[in-house]
Design brief:
- With 392 residues, this protein is α/β, with parallel strands linked by helices.
- The protein has a domain of 251 residues: Alkaline Phosphatase, subunit A (3-Layer(aba) Sandwich).
- Helix content is 39%, strand content 16%.
- It contains 16 helices and twelve strands.
- The strands form two sheets. It has a ten-stranded mixed sheet, sandwiched between helices. A two-stranded antiparallel sheet has the order 9-10.
- Bound molecules: zinc ion.
- Zinc ion binds next to helix 14.
- The site of zinc ion (ZN) has 6 residues, from helix 14.
């Protein structure tokens, strides 16, 4: 009898140790940073690796996967459908953004993070209403519906967003001033870079002139700062505050790094539940469309500076997962034989097979807590599903 009891106790002890160790092994992902390089395929990454002598952020990522980027109706996705797959885990038809192929509104990983009590943020170096960020909070049948997208942004529930595209918020056919709507909902809204950098606010939207968020013109048509924007409420409030006159500060080459650091600082302040932050580097796509090797390399170096910064951040914040991928490849970017010598005076010059998107798989790089889940070959739709499973 005594012996049986001691065996039972020993068994219980084994079980306790086993369950303890499995709970300990399970990733504890409190914070998620989802970094999307629009159009960033293997060619773009190759151009960086060859042009950069020091160790890149990509080389520091211990986990690498492959992402099949098809949309519901095409091997080659556009940005709205590509963004929707990465945001909501559903493939939709090209053109649709945040909707399933039947036109139903989708719940995204950003919404799911909010439902878990996490703070959420969006940082982009394009308009806040562009297809990729819109896929996380809006539902429209066309990326061109920018006024509808801006209206849906006002109910996105994000705590922090920094990007461009003021036109869509104030120069509207319906004459609404959506900066006033946002202020009404408790946001601080800033229209200049120094105000964004200096704000102590826990809940703010930065809608900056395009020149502040773009390194240089990529040749794509983008909405700039609105003419006559002083009529909107955010501008009137700024002109009455101490930030007035500081709007000439512009740092487009380090914008994404600084905006991301500001968003992380804000989202993690007094926050036990964690956060979800989506960052998009949008212009890699533009250089791919333009078949501009020099521009692509410069853009990839800036992307890499951001990536290194985020890797260092995750090292300091252990419950954080960093996932890096692309919505699709752009340009059919390749490196054909040029005869140039490695390390010689001729620059790395990429080749291109299209001025559009291509359907080849794109890389996934993962770092930090739970990163192992992103090793292997997966569909674009698997990525947000895995993030959802990991978020605690
Ligand atoms: Zn594109």
């Amino acid at each position: 009898m005594k012996k049986k009891a001691s065996v039972a106790i020993a068994l219980l002890a084994v079980l306790a140790v086993t369950s303890c160790s499995s709970a300990k092994d399970e990733p504890q992902v409190k914070n998620v940073i989802y970094l999307i390089g629009d159009g960033m395929g293997f060619g773009a990454v190759t151009s960086l690796l060859l042009a950069e002598d020091s160790v890149t952020g990509f080389e520091q990522a211990p986990v690498i996967g492959l992402n099949e980027t098809c949309s519901a109706n095409n091997y080659v996705t556009d940005s709205p459908a590509g963004g929707t797959a990465l945001a909501a885990g559903v493939r939709t038809r090209n053109g649709y953004c945040g909707l399933d192929p039947e036109g139903n509104r989708l719940t995204t990983i950003l919404h799911k993070a909010q439902a878990m009590g996490k703070k959420t943020g969006i940082v982009v170096n394009t308009t806040l209403t562009e297809a990729t960020p819109a896929a996380f909070y809006a539902g429209v049948t066309s990326r061109g519906m920018t006024y509808e997208i801006a209206e849906q942004f006002t109910v996105s529930g994000v705590d922090v967003a920094i990007g461009s595209g003021l036109d869509h918020f104030i120069s509207r056919p319906d004459s609404l001033d959506l900066t006033a709507t946002l202020i009404d909902k408790g946001y601080d809204v800033y229209l200049n870079w120094s105000a964004v950098l200096n704000t102590p606010s826990d809940k703010f939207i930065g809608i900056l002139p395009m020149a502040d968020v773009h390194r240089q013109e990529s040749g794509r048509k983008e909405a700039g700062a609105a003419a006559g924007h002083e009529v909107c409420l955010a501008a009137r409030l700024a002109s009455a505050s101490e930030d007035a006159g500081a709007s000439d500060l512009s740092e487009p080459t380090v914008y994404l790094q600084k905006a991301s650091a500001k968003a992380l600082e804000t989202l993690s302040r007094d926050n036990d539940n964690g956060y979800f932050l989506m960052i998009e580097s949008a212009l890699i796509d533009g250089y791919g469309h333009n078949n501009d090797s020099e521009g692509m390399i410069a853009e990839m170096k800036e992307f890499d500076a951001l990536l290194r910064q985020l890797v260092a951040y995750v090292d300091q914040h252990p419950e954080t997962l960093l996932v890096v991928t692309a919505d699709h490849e752009t340009g059919g970017t390749w490196l054909n034989y040029t005869g140039y010598e490695v390390g010689g005076s001729s620059p790395v010059t990429m080749s291109y097979s299209t001025r559009g998107h291509s359907g080849v798989v794109v890389p996934i790089f993962a770092y930090g807590e739970g990163a192992e889940a992103f090793a292997g070959v997966m569909k674009n739709t698997d990525i947000p599903k895995k993030i959802e499973q990991l978020m605690k």
